[in-house]
Backbone:
């Protein structure tokens, strides 16, 4: 069961509630380089990206989002743009005028860069720090409200404020409280267009903290959507596996409304991995899914070659789950949740299944893929 949240509008693409789990990426080109950003964003969107985030270090970058958007719109690309702001609350105010959403980091929105010093705060001093946050944060909420701009509160494990570190240390509880300081202000000001993310490069820290964040929000009646990601996951198989473990575990818990797979690769490479993770978790079906056994001494046909032939013939059948099994032992039982099955029957013969029901048996292997397609086609016509 997916955690229920409010709907948050990011441009014209809503997230949360009953909407699909959204996939996003982030540009790596300088945000002042309009053409480079536009080309990267086009590649992200062509790969299936639904939101694109751009770093906005200063006012120039924030204002150039309008030029980037205009260039994209001229070419028929209408993807929502998210401004990524750190260390400068004034830039967030400007970005909220030009972006569909603004990401701020609670650890450095008002607080200066961490000095990694142990600072002791009295209760009065701590309360004064929170008042300083509210005084600076409320104007941003007012701008976001008047311009229909969404807000993402993005906490990173490595950028907690000295104030949070003094009370909670470098802990999941500290990461959650860093976000809750800002969420309480949002709720008090009745601003609900908020998305929350809590990221770490350590998958155990990340998953534990996101679960704690979701539990804390639910107990406080704050049904805000969650953005999931393993930050600084790396590249190649390392980045993909860490992302699959961290994001996938939370998706299986019913958590997550948008995801980003952070890879040290061209940004468009992140998108297929994200969809693969969503498909594997059963949270968003975007292609044909295949179940196949590893093969053993009972397999009487060339399993890899057969899998390739079945995939080539059925890859266009988005949403179907098709099993290719070597023998009857791993057939009906192991493929019980497949829509259709191709099962070796020995001596160059094949049995075909619809769900758990064997619909044709003793078919010559050379004819089996064609017969499978005919069964699927007949079912779809009816």
Residues:
């Amino acid at each position: 069961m997916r955690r229920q949240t409010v709907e948050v509008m990011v441009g014209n693409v809503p997230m949360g509630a009953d909407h699909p789990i959204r996939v996003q990426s982030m540009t790596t080109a300088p945000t002042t380089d309009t053409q480079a950003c536009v080309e990267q964003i086009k590649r992200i969107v062509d790969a299936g990206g639904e939101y694109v985030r751009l770093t906005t270090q200063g006012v120039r970058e924030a204002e150039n989002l309008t030029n980037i958007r205009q260039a994209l719109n001229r070419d028929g690309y209408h993807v929502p743009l998210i401004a990524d702001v750190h260390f400068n609350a004034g830039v967030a105010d400007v970005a909220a005028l030009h972006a569909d959403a603004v990401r701020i980091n609670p650890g450095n929105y008002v607080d200066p860069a961490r000095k990694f010093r142990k600072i002791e705060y009295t209760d009065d001093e701590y309360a004064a720090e929170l008042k300083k946050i509210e005084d600076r944060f409320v104007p941003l909420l007012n701008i976001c409200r008047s311009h229909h701009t969404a807000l993402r509160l993005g906490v990173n494990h490595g950028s907690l404020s000295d104030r949070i570190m003094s009370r909670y240390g470098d802990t999941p509880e500290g990461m959650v409280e860093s976000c809750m300081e800002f969420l309480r202000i949002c709720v008090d000001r009745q601003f609900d267009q908020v998305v929350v993310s809590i990221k770490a490069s350590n998958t155990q820290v990340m998953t534990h903290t996101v679960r704690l964040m979701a539990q804390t929000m639910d107990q406080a009646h704050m049904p805000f959507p969650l953005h999931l990601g393993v930050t600084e996951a790396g590249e190649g198989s390392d980045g993909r596996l860490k992302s699959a473990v961290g994001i996938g575990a939370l998706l299986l818990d019913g958590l997550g409304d948008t995801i980003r797979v952070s890879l040290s690769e061209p940004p468009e490479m992140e998108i297929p991995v994200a969809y693969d993770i969503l498909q594997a978790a059963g949270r968003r079906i975007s292609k044909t899914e295949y179940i196949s056994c590893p093969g053993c001494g009972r397999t009487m046909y060339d399993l890899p070659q057969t899998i390739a032939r079945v995939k080539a013939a059925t890859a266009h059948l988005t949403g179907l789950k098709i099993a290719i099994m070597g023998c009857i032992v791993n057939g009906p039982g192991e493929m019980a949740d497949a829509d259709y099955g191709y099962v070796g029957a020995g001596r160059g013969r094949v049995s075909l299944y619809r769900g758990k029901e064997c619909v044709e048996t003793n078919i010559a292997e050379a004819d089996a893929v064609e017969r499978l397609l005919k069964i699927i086609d007949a079912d779809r016509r009816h």
Remarks:
- Residues 123-147 form the longest helix (25 residues).
- The chain has a mean pLDDT of 92.
- The radius of gyration is 25 Å.
- The longest strand covers residues 357-364.
